Amino acid sequence: MWDLDILIVGAGPSGLTAADHLVAAGRRPLVIERSAQTGGLIRSIRRGEFIVDLGRKELYTRIPEIDRLWNAVLGVAYRPYPHRVGSLFGGRILELSGRDRGPLRGMPPQLLCAGGIDLIRGWIDGAIRRPDSYERFWHQRVGRRFSHALAQGYWEKFRGQPWHALPVPEALAGGEQRVSHGFAAVVQSLQLAARGGVSRQHSWRHPALGTGQLTDRLAARVREGGGEIWLNAELIALERSDGGRLLATIRRKGANLTCRAEAVISSLTPESLDALMRPNAPDIVTRHKRAVMLVYLFLNAPPRFPHAWLEVNDPAFRAGRISNYAGFNGDMVPPGHSALCVEYFLNGDDPLLRSNNDQAWIAQALAECSANDLIDPDRLIDAMAIRLDRCNAAASWREEQDSARTDLYDRLTAYPGLFHVHRPGADWASFAGLCAAKAILTQDRKDFDRRADPGRSYAASNAETMREEA
């Protein structure tokens, strides 16, 4: 056993951000990472001449401290890109913004006419009765066809829940005024997917060599500053020690190593962390597990669409989203080539996860892309499939809140030297890591508990700070 200043579990964005801040202050943390690569869910994958992200990745600018850090770390490699997003429906690509093809978003006349009729039907239905589901709310508001063409299919796949099973949005339940019946309502119907597809963020940037370029540079800064990063090293036990310290057991190279740390920063899920600290406690019942299947297609032909990604609203296809890495204005794809990622969002017990092997998933992705004329299958030069188990692509802080999670958070705060920084979203996770590092340096965790509260959104946790800055 040896004594350690700071142990950081996980070399993803939260752990590396914390380590970077600590080494800048002269501390020497040890970062352990279970896999063979840094980056976590924002790592990049090299495949021959190609560099791709792990699915579709967006980097937000909503947290000033993190936006400044990313700009400082990446410099000119943090490149702006158009953030053009399309909806794949009925064999056509519709726009989720009126910026590129005007207010009609590329809709064919027959869809506009049928959608207009559905819109009037929805208004009539809304005048007769109040909506009893999320689906009826939107069908009354913008019509069934516009809902299907711009949002419903994608979001049902993404979340794994049909709209008819979801409750009416809180805004209407609270007495929100109905939308007016006029052109503004038609425009709103064409903007329906802005509830997820198009963010209010006005300027978007992406690392030239994929999101893993950010964590690679952070890891290099940590090592240059005197910190250590152990890959293929896993935390297998954690318990309270004397003097408020924590006793950690790490499995590395087939051996179990024990250290006594003054502080531990963990990016494990709260359930995983609780299981390490209470190994004999009953398993926590969680919501149904989700999984993501990523199928990468590499072609020796330029992409047939300019969008950074397409949301697949067509219910005839299992794919949920198709990312086009040439659309991020970087150096991820060689000139004259294409790299697409076809994403399938699945329940953890989906029979396809058991019956399909990698080649079957690749064949399905090829068939679906070819059927929509997105690729020429004869130009395929490489393909691969990656399965992400226990991965919910739609995870958000709101969806992770329930009574079991609240109890978990309360138990974790009983350990003053333990900082839990697992958060959905690279920026929110990075901010939690930064707050944890600052708390260790100041020996005061009040700001961490307030500003990085896992039970609230960043905006809610930092409302007072944002008012002061304004």
From TrEMBL:
<dbReference type="GO" id="GO:0008767">
    <property type="term" value="F:UDP-galactopyranose mutase activity"/>
</dbReference>
<protein>
    <recommendedName>
        <fullName>FAD-dependent oxidoreductase</fullName>
    </recommendedName>
</protein>
<dbReference type="GO" id="GO:0050660">
    <property type="term" value="F:flavin adenine dinucleotide binding"/>
</dbReference>
<feature type="region of interest" description="Disordered">
    <location>
        <begin position="449"/>
        <end position="470"/>
    </location>
</feature>
<dbReference type="InterPro" id="IPR036188">
    <property type="entry name" value="FAD/NAD-bd_sf"/>
</dbReference>
<dbReference type="GO" id="GO:0005829">
    <property type="term" value="C:cytosol"/>
</dbReference>
<dbReference type="Pfam" id="PF13450">
    <property type="entry name" value="NAD_binding_8"/>
</dbReference>
